[in-house]
Amino acid sequence: MHIFVAPHPPIILPEIGRGEEQKAAATIAGMKRIAGEIAALKPKTIAVVTPHGHAFRDALCVSVERDLTGDFGQFGFPRLKFSFTGSEKAVDFCDALEEAGIQAVALDRAAARQYQISTHVDHGALVPLSFILNDYSDFELLHIGMGFLTKEATCAAGRILAELLDESDVLLFSGDLSHRLLPESGSGYDKQGAVYDALIVNAVKNKHYGDILEVSEDLLEHAGQCAQRPFEMMVGALDGYETETEVYSYEGPYGVGYMTAHIIRGVPPRLSSRTSIGTSAGKYPKRKAWERSPAFL
Ligand SMILES: [Zn+2]
Known about the structure:
Strand content: 15-25%
CATH class: Alpha Beta
Low-confidence stretches: 278-285
Bound molecules: zinc ion
Radius of gyration: 17 Å
Mean pLDDT: 92
Number of helices: 10
CATH topology: Protocatechuate 4,5-dioxygenase, Chain B
Distance between the termini: 30 Å
CATH architecture: 3-Layer(aba) Sandwich
Order of helices and strands: EHHEEEEHEHHEHEHHHEEH
Number of strands: 10
Number of domains: 1
Largest sheet: 10 strands, mixed
């Protein structure tokens, strides 16, 4: 199964960046490479895990509508909009989560009314999807918003998701690394930002995925990131499998760390090799400001 990692700064879209996006040339090249590879794979389903969907305290949010739309209106570009066919596997995913004791909100129009939220696809998913749509559109979208679950439950949800998908489907984890790499980044400079980014990039580069689960709350707090939860779900999807991995790009041109990467999940796990998960359970602290507010960068 092909698994991709992508960031989601709206500024890298030429319609929004209007030239500024050129500072993130390596990221854009990585995004285009991912899009080209997905087009060659022709997956029926692309599952996108995003940190900027509707985040519930104790549940994942899974879009079960078949007609999905999203736009960049919150960034001042309402005419930059996209539509997708929702995946028929979305309901099965909710059922499988429930069976495993993990709560999920099956987001359709009725649920959206009940919670007074929208069914729109968020920018965490839209930015990578907009690159993919340039090359390939014949897929169904399984749109998954992170919830504030324990690490253990988050990893388990990743494993369940990967088991539900076909080998020919694609899984994409969306996340930006530290927002505090430079004083001008808007979130304030913190020297721990670069430490976090190096840890995550090396974990993917060296196939030490379990390191992602070991990041301390203190480092998460200092780094100011939105990738941690989606990437923890990715660890669950990879746990115990042989993999091939390549980091396509890493840079922080606006003071925010962006990584693009491709991981191929190969041989199925031996039960004895599944040891990395289950040791780091615990509740997360409250949602942080950088996880709430829309960010151009
Ligand atoms: Zn983000």
